[in-house]
Amino acid sequence: MPREVGPSLNERQFFQQALKEKIRIDGRNFEDFRQVQLEFGDEYGVSDVRLGKTRVLTKISAEVTTPYPDRPFDGLFTITTALSPMTLPSFSVSGPPSETEILLSRLLEKTIRRSGALDTESLCLLAGKSCFSVRADVHILSADGNLVDAACFGVVSALRHFRRNDISVSGEEVTVYTLREREGVPLSLLHYPLCVTFSFYTPAPGEEEMVLVDATQLEEHTRDGSCTIGMNKHGEVCQIAKLGGAPTDAVMLLQCANVALQHVLKLSKIMDEKLAEDTKKRDKGGMRAELSAENARITE
User: Fold this and answer.
1) Would you tell me which of 44, 69, 87, 252 could form a disulfide with 163, CB atoms 3.0–4.6 Å apart?
2) Which residues 6+ apart lie within 8 Å of 19 measured at CB?
3) According to the model, what pLDDT value does residue 176 have?
4) CB atoms within 10 A of CB 242
5) Could you give the CA distance from residue 143 to residue 150 in angstroms, rounded to a whole number?
C-alpha cells in the first residue's frame, strides 16, 4: 500500500507558528466551517457535496431482496465507501483498505445506521419473505480534509432526496411499480444525524489546547488528536468518537458539543433549503410549467 505523503518540515513549522498567533492559513476562525455546497442529480437519491476542496458524491439505490432470518420484519440498509487512488495516492483498490477508509466507514455506520436514522421496519414488504434493501454508495472525488463530515452530510441529504418504487401487495404476491408508473415513495427517516469533527492541538507543554473545526488536509496531518460528534438538530448526541491522540478534558468535550449543535443547525438549514429548491424544480407547476410556457399555443 502506498504511504501517504505528509507535509514538509517548512509547512509544519509555518502552520504551528500561525496557530500560536491564533491564525488559520485559509483565514477562517477556529470554529468556522468552509463553504458548503450541495447539489442534487437528475435521479432521485444522488447528492454532490463540496466542502472547500473536498468533494463527495453519494448515490442511493434500492432493490427487493429477502430479509435476514433473525430480523424478518426489518429491511436492509448498508453504507459502502469508495476511495480511489485518483483522489489520493495512498488509497488503494487492490490491497487492504486504508485506515482512513476504515474509520470513515465505521463513523458513518455508527452515526447513521446504528442511530436508527432510517426506519428499517418501513422497508418490509412481506414478513420473512421480501423487503427493500437500501444501499448508500459514497464516492470520494476529492480529499482535502474532513471526509467524515462531508460524507455524512452527503448520505443524509441523499437519503432524504431518494424515492423508492411504490409497491402493491396482493396475498403473497408483491408488485413493484416503476417511477414512470407511479410516483416514488420517500424513505421513512426518524431523524437527520450529522457529524462535526474537531481537531486538537497542543503547541507546547503547558500551553492552552487549541481546537479547530473542519480541518483541512494539512491541519489533519499536524493535529495531536481529534473527536467526531454525531448529533441531530434536536441536540441528541448519536455518537462521540475520540480515536486516540492526546487526552482531552471533559469540559472541552462539552464545549465542543455546544459548538457542534450550532453547526448541525446551520447544515440542516442548508439541506432543507436545497431540498425545497429541488422539489420546486421537479414540481409540475414549477420548472416544467416554465419550460413549456414558451411553446404553449395561445388560443382565444
Assistant:
1) 44
2) 201, 203, 210
3) 86
4) 15
5) 10
Q: Give the three cell numbers for residue 156.
A: 443524509
Cα 122 to the center of its chain, rounded Å: 22
User: Residue 196: enclosing H or E segment and its boundaries?
Assistant: strand 194-201
**Which of 238, 59, 257 is CA-nearest to residue 158?**
59
**Single pTM value for the model:** 0.89
Q: Are 56 and 140 in contact (CB under 8 A)?
A: yes
Give the integer Cα–Cα distance in Å for 189 and 17. Answer: 45
Residue 212, CB half-sphere, CA atoms under 13 Å: how many? Answer: 33
- State the average pLDDT for the chain: 86
pLDDT at position 67 over 80: yes
**Dist. CA 209–CA 220, nearest whole Å:** 16
Place of cell 418504487: 165
Specify which of 11-15, 173-177, 262-266 reaches the highest per-range mean pLDDT: 262-266
77 SS3 class = strand
Per DSSP, the chain holds a count of helices (H) and strands (E) of 6, 14
Q: Which amino acid is at 126?
A: L
pLDDT score for 300 = 39
Beta-strand relationship, 167-170 and 225-231:
unpaired
What's the grid cell of residue 164?
423508492
In whole angstroms, give the CA distance from residue 111 to residue 228: 10
